[in-house]
Amino acid sequence: MSNAIQFAILGMASGGLYALMALGLIVVHRTSGAINFAHGAIAVTAGYVLFYGEAQGIPTPVAVTIAILAGLLLGVLIQLLVMTPLRNASTLTKAIATLGILVVLQAGCQLKFGSQPQLVKNFLPQNGVTILGAYVTVDYLIMLAIALLLAAVLWVVYRRTRFGLATTAVSDNEEALGTLGWSSTLVARGNWAIAGTLAALSGVLLAPTTGVSLPSMTTLLLPALAAALFGRLSSFPLATLGALLIGVTQSELTFYGQSPVLRDLPNLPEAVPFLLIIVILVARGKTLPTRDFVESRLPALGSGRVRPRTVLPTVAVAVLLIQWLLPLEWVMATTSTLIAAIIVLSLVLLIGYAGQLSLAQLSIGGLGALVTSRLVASADWPLPLAVLVGIAAAVPVGIVVGLPAVRTRGATLAVVTLGLAAALNSLVFSTVKFTGGDVGLDVGYPSLLGFDFDETTYPRRYALVVLALLVLVGIGLGNLRRSGLGRRMISVRSNERAAASLGVNVAGAKLSAFVMSSVIATLGAILVAFRYPNALFTSFDPFQSVNYVVQSVIGGVGFVPGAAAGGTLEPSGLGSKVIHDIGLGDWLTLVGGVLLLLTVIFNPDGMVGSGLAQVRSAKRRLFPAKASSSASDGVVAVDSQAGAAPDRGAVNVLAVSGLTVEFGAVTAVDGVDFELRSGEVLGVIGPNGAGKTTLIDALTGYVPAKGSVTLDGKQLLGTPPHRRSRLGLIRSFQSLELFEDLSVGENLLVASEKSTLRTAVGSVLRPKRPTLDGAAAAAVQEFGLGDALAAAPGDLSYGQRRLLAISRAVACNPTVLLLDEPAAGLDDGDRQALKALVRRLAENWGIAVLLIEHDVDLVMSVSDRILALNFGAVTAHASPDEVRRHPEVIRSYLGEDDAAASTGTDETLERSAQ
Ligand SMILES: Nc1ncnc2c1ncn2[C@@H]1O[C@H](COP(=O)(O)OP(=O)(O)OP(=O)(O)O)[C@@H](O)[C@H]1O
Description:
Blueprint: H1 2-32, H2 39-55, H3 60-83, H4 91-113, E1 128-131, E2 134-137, H5 138-160, H6 162-172, H7 174-179, H8 184-210, H9 216-230, H10 236-256, H11 268-284, H12 308-325, H13 328-353, H14 361-377, H15 383-407, H16 410-429, H17 432-435, E3 441-442, E4 447-448, E5 451-452, H18 459-482, H19 484-494, H20 496-501, H21 506-529, E6 534-535, H22 542-555, H23 560-567, H24 574-581, H25 588-602, H26 606-622, E7 637-638, E8 653-663, E9 666-677, E10 681-685, H27 692-700, E11 706-711, E12 714-715, H28 721-726, E13 729-731, H29 744-752, H30 757-765, E14 771-772, H31 774-782, H32 798-811, E15 816-820, H33 828-843, E16 848-852, H34 856-862, E17 865-870, E18 873-878, H35 880-885, H36 887-894, H37 896-900, H38 906-913
Parallel strand pairs: 7-14, 10-16, 10-17, 13-15, 15-16
Antiparallel strand pairs: 1-2, 3-6, 4-5, 8-9, 8-11, 11-12, 17-18
Helix pairs in contact: 1-5, 1-8, 1-9, 1-10, 2-3, 2-4, 2-8, 2-9, 3-8, 4-22, 4-25, 5-6, 6-8, 9-10, 9-11, 9-16, 10-11, 11-16, 12-18, 13-18, 13-21, 13-22, 13-23, 13-24, 14-15, 14-16, 14-21, 15-21, 18-19, 19-21, 19-29, 22-23, 22-25, 22-26, 23-26, 29-32, 31-32, 33-34
């Protein structure tokens, strides 16, 4: 028992260190919304500074102070040099930037101090005390006390002081902070300084116990990330509690690990943070982001068009070089680069197309490669069959990794994948029983139908096989980019809420991306494993996966050729060969990290992205007549036979009764009843905050609601948004929510294409030119978008963008169309056109239209009936004339003057409505 208590106290001490780290992560998240993946690296760097100081003969207390100040300085520098230029970037981009910092610090420390752990002196008292019968040294208690004290101090500072309030203001409303006379940059810098200090403090406190070593960068970071998530990335006390729980659990597992049951899993404690991360995110996540989620711009995407005139000569030159021209050492460097390019392609799919960041690509792929290797090495399976089974094994792994992505997004998802990579590393790849350790698995020499292509004997053949596979995967990805499935993935990356409103199964699109990218990563990992007769898994660690993210972003993560460009940065690849040859030795990783930072700051679309943009602009200058618009690669055809509004046949009825939505104490929609039939227009009016948008959210499944919503008798409550959309209930959004990464035509295609597994696979293998037909073709005519199909939404005027948002909803061929303030910001002419359009959609198309509008004149003149809301409840439901005269509506919304002025102008009426 006393042993269990002793382990609990030791666990609390390491929990205290995790807590210090977690506090720093929260401080950064509060100020910049970023998850700092370099936090562990700052801690370890401070540890190395302490080691270096001691080695120089500096007294330990001074060295400790310098090390902590180094953390502070690093925090300030990161904010100054990286976060300030990226302040408006997406959280994903910021997370990638912190990965760059991680790589720079890791590579810098490795260059200076090597990879062996370095020992530092104990600077805390080592005398022992007995607590509840358990003997522990005082240093552990001091660590715990420091953590608890700092957590309490931070809690008070961020709640009670002007600095703390200013920090909250930086993340909530930077302009408001400016009016208070505070500089947001200085507040952010102060927070980064605190975070750096906290990281350094934990690194320095840890150093005497474990020594200073590079792997601590993740072993410290992961529990801290888990604890910070436990504290919802905002609560200091909760994060501290989480950290202590993790520390104690890990410590007790180490203690009970001596028992026969746990003896076979010596690394189980290291997996605890990952398990906690999964549980937290799956329990707390949301399948769709909330209304206030702001989508930021992600790196640009290529067209995916496969141009034989470019591909064939490039492949021919590569074959020529590999087979005849290059010396062997260059061939092997080329092989490394080409294999890396395959793994990076898995990230082009996942990050580029689907917008999901994974830090576990090599671990996922490695698992499949391990299956293949063991089947060949131990069970003597033929290679092709073993490869197929290894790749098949990647499918469930992809699903497991993808599942958290269904309920979380952005940088938080990256935390899950980093946790997975670390867990796989400690549970699988570091377990000699599975991988053979440093000896590896005896997979022999690969051969297919008598064709030997092992790298040891036939390096050129191996390189050619890798090249062939890279070209095949690259063409497949290009085809995917132009396919319906690809468009759906991109729509999810651009805007999950909008994608779901058009019937896209967001979870399905994400899972498909994870599965397909896992398969590609597995292919790459198998090629890594089978390079030598003994397949080694010692380097399948999280750092390598981070390296592939680095390569993908530098090359251009939205572009297939970007993978080859990024692959040159592979250790032992072409870039490394060049760097070696010019005498820079092992500087490649450091160069990669610096390049990544420069890329995300100055060139977010990567080498290929910016290169293509320059070629395009040069073409435009030289051949203005021929030049096409930036999105013209997304050209789609319009079915010339289609064009008339689809005949709807039967009358459909949307019946709503007792519909209620509660947000805590606020009842946003309060027992609303109405019916809406095909061909009718129901206007919904009410003051700001009356619950109009929440009504649409509830009808379309974006917020949980009580009551009943039926379409032709079928109950819709409880059905997810994309299903309701497929049943004919289609909404638009106040803020448009167009897919900015897709052309106008592709925006319409996402709405109109129906896809099955067969068409998805078919379009990747043999893509066809997409065609807008049925309702989508009719919408193109109705909305006059024929000339704009190839344009990017960003190139359209504001009025055209509004029209595109409505036409995209109409392209779904809705039974019920729910329009949320479609006239907002339109000029008078466009408003008149919209009025006529809404009537045509009802009368000619037979659509039931629910129209929320603050333009009272418009809504009164176009609607058959009006539903007036106030505080979520219906105040009137009658004809426009009756509602205009309704005393309650006049009091709460219209005002006496405007109601009396039955012929009031748009402007006066709208002013009163605001
Ligand atoms: N996710 C949410 N969590 C908590 N409260 C919410 C949420 N969404 C809306 N509300 C609250 O519900 C009420 C209704 O808001 P809603 O946006 O539906 O009104 P509205 O009539 O559409 O307003 P507006 O005309 O300004 O668009 C408001 O009090 C709002 O603050």
